[in-house]
Fold this protein.
Amino acid sequence: MFSNKHPEFRRPTVGPRRSTWPYRFAELFFGAIAKATMVIAVVFVAALALLSGETGGVTDLPTTRKGWRNLLLFVLTIFVVIACGIYFFSRTTSPSYR
């Protein structure tokens, strides 16, 4: 094998594994801050568009019962997806198998 003839090309030995908890925490923390900032910005822009009387494609409200039903189903679907994500990805609510 090539590495047996040339020991300088062997992989270095791996030391003790570093804790990834701080890195994971930082990733989740700053990711949540970024998402919250985007949500606040979108809500602000939508509120500004509604208050200015602009009737663009984003701020059009439904005019029929079917349109309101579809909007309600969409919002409820988003809430269910968020609730499932919080339930299944939260460490505190996960069962312990130790």
Notes: Residues 46 and 58 are 8 Å apart (CA to CA). The chain is about 60% helix and 0% strand.
